């Protein structure tokens, strides 16, 4: 049942989201005060401030929030689908397929929209490959899906190593930044916003089924849930969310793994609360991580995936210890 503390949690996350967005807009090599940011948002800023915000910081902040929201939502779905607390959006090899597509594009000298399309095509191919193997002869099971995803992911890892070792020095740096997650050139469009909105609405519509499935398949079947149909919806939904996130920012780790656990620890176990809260906290987390990536060694920038790993590893250890102590 949704109680007062759940509404308080959502309210707190909305405040955190707003604070993280303003932090991101204020962070960078060009110093902008809060008054300048507010003035620009009200269309009354100076030309230089307007250019910095509209062409660099606002698109990057929006990209970070969208990516974090998609990854956190995918993490929630994967953990329910696979009934594995260690499941994250990349466990089924989707990021590996996207990486092979993106690195191949970099190796051929492509960039921009061509690189994005190549990454998305690689992710879709990996989705189809994992599903095709796991569903061979119609014998679909979570164990088969998980094992197939792990093997395919290992295969993509081997291909990635081959591409890295056979590439020129100039290409390797670009490849490594993509593999570690990078938002410096990221842009989102209407399709990404629509996908995130569909994920929110769909997650709320399927929240009852997710609550039941998280208690076990036998319980879900006993309560009339169509397990086969639900598995298909969850698999392809999480896969598409992950593919979209990877094409925006590369392989950003720990968001989909840590955020759902953190929220469950705060009492958001009901998916009617967990789904929207995951989007808010996942987006805010990545916005803050990207802000840190820009200022820690300014004027140079760190890959955002490095920052999420630095924050994510101790956070997950703390969550794990708290869970065990209970």
For this entry, give a set of tags.
mainly alpha, 14 helices, about 325 residues, globular, ABC transporter involved in vitamin B12 uptake, BtuC
Let me know the average pLDDT: 87
Q: What is the overall number of helices?
A: 14
Terminal CA distance reads 21 Å
Order of helices and strands: HHHHHHHHHHHHHH
The biggest beta sheet reads: none
The CATH homologous superfamily is called ABC transporter involved in vitamin B12 uptake, BtuC
The portion of residues assigned to helices is over 70%
SSE topology:
Elements: H1 4-26, H2 34-41, H3 47-81, H4 94-107, H5 113-134, H6 142-165, H7 169-180, H8 190-205, H9 207-213, H10 217-222, H11 227-249, H12 255-265, H13 271-295, H14 304-325
Helix pairs in contact: 1-3, 1-13, 3-8, 3-11, 3-12, 3-13, 4-5, 4-6, 4-7, 4-11, 5-6, 5-11, 8-13, 12-13, 12-14, 13-14
Account of the 3D structure:
- The chain is mainly α and 326 residues long.
- It has a single domain, classed as ABC transporter involved in vitamin B12 uptake, BtuC.
- The chain contains 14 helices and no strands.
- α3 crosses α13, α4 (94-107) packs antiparallel against α7 (169-180) and α12 (255-265) packs parallel to α14.
- The model has no long low-confidence stretch (mean pLDDT 87).
